[in-house]
Amino acid sequence: MLLYTMDPRPLLPKEHEALRHIRNRLVHGGQAPSVRELQERLGYQSPRSAALILSRLAALGFIRRRADGKLQLVRDLPDDAGHATTVMVPLVGTAPCGLPLLAEQNVEANIQVSTGLARPPHHYFLLRTMGDSMNRAGIASGDVVLVRQQSTADPGDRVVALIDGEATIKRLRLSPDAVVLEPVSDNPDHKPIIVSTDFLVQGVVVSSIPLEEGSSHGRHTQ
After folding, report:
1. Fewer CB within 10 A of the end CB, N or C, for the chain?
2. Which of these is catalytic: 49, 55, 114, 133?
3. Residue 205 above 90 pLDDT?
4. Catalytic: 170?
């Protein structure tokens, strides 16, 4: 993981505004804005002006195109960490079947997170949540959670698991013959998932991160 304390090349106001908009769209919606949308957001008369902004952000190493053509945030906003030491943590979307959770195709952005939360030498990733299966465990639909990568967990931990190629967050419960992934929800439609004892978790949720307007601070929940 690469540590940052400050960016030596400040962005121009329009570049900063564009990068912030791209960041927030990726974090909360999973999709970058189109050139036309960026043009309207920045108040330009021509989409070429917005395209030039994207080219400059790419040249500065803030964004790039993935192999599938989608825009990826490589570096976070340069002034969001202040004087705090931060680490870049990948934000991943839903993992398609057959691909590891942290495969390049799944990384939508790299976000600055304080090392007070993402503590070295551990490795972390961010995951956008969907649904209400953990709403009584401090995780609401649309939250972004900070996950410490590890293949083991203790009973009661909120774990990230890959079930049928999809990332899911559940509370871990162990029995002599099986592993039970329990929802913690006021919605009775959610049922436990029972897997074999050789099942491996992908990580443990340690925090819920409020990433509105580029915040790099979180609500520590474990």
Report:
1. C
2. 133
3. yes
4. yes
What are 167-198's pLDDT values in tens digits?
789 999 988 888 999 999 999 999 999 988 77
User: Considering only the top CATH level, what class is 3-76?
Assistant: mainly alpha
Per-residue confidence (pLDDT) for residue 5, from 0 to 100 = 37
210 against 121, higher pLDDT? 121
Pick the closest to residue 166 from 109, 122, 108, 127 (CA basis): 127
Pinpoint the residues of the chain covered by CATH 1.10.10.10: 3-76
Report the CATH number of the 104-220 domain. 2.10.109.10
Catalytic residue among 114, 141, 151, 170: 170
Looking at the chain, the domain(s) classified CATH 2.10.109.10 span 104-220
110, 121 Cβ separation under 8 angstroms: no
